[in-house]
Design a protein that fits this description.
The longest helix is centred in the middle third of the chain and has 35 residues. The chain has two domains: 221 residues, no CATH class; 47 residues, no CATH class. It is globular and about 65 Å long. Helix content is 63%, strand content 0%. The protein is mostly helical.
Length: 286
């Protein structure tokens, strides 16, 4: 697969973290193999593998949509979209981005209280291993939806390239929102270390880990702002796949100028002839 180019702070953030997340499925497979070995060979089953796989798998499921959105590889229905003119496709994409933003806002608005409560009391899973799945994955859903909404708008601005000032203004706003939220969260993480009622019950090692992730996020967003601020994105190219395939078939004389399909014997035999890239003719023909 050829990846879509990364442009802007939101793209950079999603692309960077996807490089780490792509190893998470391999991690799940590895610990499950370890559990099978411990359970059926050494007869010493673990307490943590099942919950850990649920924990990491849930995070992958939530965040994978960000990379799919950035790469424009999410599920879409093209029956009407493909036959629509270019201006109408732009309208469809605008409506789609608007719907994503409305959905993200609604879920964040409705779920913020519950996610904050679970995070604040550091709610655990309630098993023998007892990982803080509710305390981490609930806020992760809301953070993912925020970035998803920004990514949808970023895609719209760059696929139908808007004027430079529109793109730059959005990058500044999006980067400011992401950096501002990170800077707002870091002091809260280290404000109190006691376990009295009303204080954050997150262990210190978790606070340090989350703080490091937030600092890395700030650095990535700043890098995206600096590197791509004056860059003009490549316009989206709409490819007619049917016409593209027909052109390839014409080069090997499968489709003549009248549109008739007349495959040569070599094609029917499963050994199609080689086409010269320069002339478009079958090698060996005169």
């Amino acid at each position: 697969m050829i990846e879509h180019e990364t442009t802007g702070p939101v793209d950079r953030l999603n692309w960077s973290f996807s490089r780490v997340a792509m190893w998470a499925p391999a991690f799940i497979v590895a610990i499950i193999f370890y559990e099978v070995f411990m359970r059926y060979v050494l007869f010493r089953p673990t307490l943590w593998v099942n919950e850990m796989s649920l924990w990491v798998g849930g995070a992958i499921y939530v965040t994978a949509g960000l990379y799919a959105m950035q790469q424009r590889s999410h599920i879409r229905i093209f029956i009407i979209y493909d036959i629509a003119p270019k201006w109408l496709r732009k309208v469809f994409d605008t409506i789609s981005a608007l719907c994503v933003c409305i959905f993200a806002f609604a879920v964040i608005y409705g779920g913020f209280g519950e996610a904050a409560a679970k995070f604040w009391r550091w709610e655990a899973f309630g098993t023998a291993f007892d990982p803080p799945i509710p305390a981490t994955n609930k806020p992760l859903i809301l953070a993912t939806l925020l970035v998803l909404g920004l990514q949808a708008v970023s895609n719209l601005i760059r696929d139908w390239p808007a004027k430079a000032w529109v793109r730059k203004t959005f990058d500044l706003i999006a980067g400011g929102v992401l950096i501002g939220l990170c800077l707002w969260a870091i002091p809260i993480l280290f404000s109190e270390f006691t376990d009295v009622e009303g204080s954050l019950k997150m262990p210190l090692k978790w606070r340090i880990g989350v703080g490091v992730i937030l600092l890395i996020s700030i650095a990535i967003v700043l890098y995206g702002l600096i590197k791509d601020f004056n860059r003009t994105p490549t316009p989206m190219v709409i490819v007619d796949e049917v016409e593209e395939e027909a052109e390839v078939l014409r080069k090997i004389n499968v489709v003549d100028e009248g549109g008739e399909i007349t495959p040569p014997d070599a094609v029917l035999s499963g050994n199609p002839p080689k086409v010269d890239a320069a002339s478009g003719k079958i090698k060996g023909d005169r």
